[in-house]
């Protein structure tokens, strides 16, 4: 089977060739999570958050790819389309590999959101449930079986993950834009 050079595969190759043992899915999840938590789109903040995941300072080619990834996420979250394209293996990759990447994406998202979320108690019930769903999804990737049912479960989860970040992003940005009732003591 020929290896297709999907964006995911190209990013995976770039990361492993640069000595970063991290999945593109986890990086993309981290970026979306931090953006949805209200971290904004400051390049230095993103590179700082990602440096701890990469365990070393990224080289220029990786750094440029990370900045490009951030530009893509920014346009997805703030654009008219309101669609998020997940950085995951293509559909012809084995289900186990795709499911593992889905779990890594969720773990990255939860980390990114957690690092940058000002106060979870102010989130709506719906937003809190979305975060709980992401935690659950990050832990069940092994449960997807290589069957038609497993395939449809995977697709359902993937569709859910394409809208979950938009809900969280909309909510945290609505809160951030709302005038504070009283000055904060933090």
Automatic annotation (TrEMBL):
Q: Its domain of life?
A: Bacteria
UniProt cross-references to Pfam families, sorted A to Z = UPF0149 (PF03695)
- What protein family does this chain belong to? Belongs to the UPF0149 family.
Q: Which PANTHER family match?
A: UPF0149 PROTEIN YGFB
Tell me the protein's name.
UPF0149 protein KVG96_25750
Taxonomic source organism = Pseudomonas ekonensis
């Amino acid at each position: 089977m020929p290896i297709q050079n999907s964006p995911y595969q190209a990013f995976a190759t770039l990361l492993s060739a640069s000595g970063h043992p991290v999945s593109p899915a986890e990086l993309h999840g981290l970026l979306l999570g931090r953006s949805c938590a209200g971290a904004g789109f400051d390049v230095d903040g993103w590179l700082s958050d990602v440096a701890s995941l990469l365990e070393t300072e990224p080289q220029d080619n990786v750094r440029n790819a990370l900045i490009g990834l951030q530009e893509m996420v920014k346009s997805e979250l703030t654009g008219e389309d309101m669609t998020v394209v997940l950085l995951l293996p293509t559909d012809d990759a084995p289900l186990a590999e795709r499911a593992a990447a889905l779990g890594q994406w969720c773990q990255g998202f939860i980390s990114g959101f957690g690092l940058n979320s000002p106060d979870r108690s102010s989130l709506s019930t719906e937003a809190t449930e979305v975060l709980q769903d992401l935690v659950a999804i990050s832990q069940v990737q092994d449960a997807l079986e290589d069957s038609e049912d497993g395939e449809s479960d995977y697709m359902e989860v993937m569709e859910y993950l394409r809208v979950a970040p938009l809900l969280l992003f909309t909510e945290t940005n609505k809160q951030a834009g709302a005038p504070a009732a009283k000055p904060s003591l933090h």
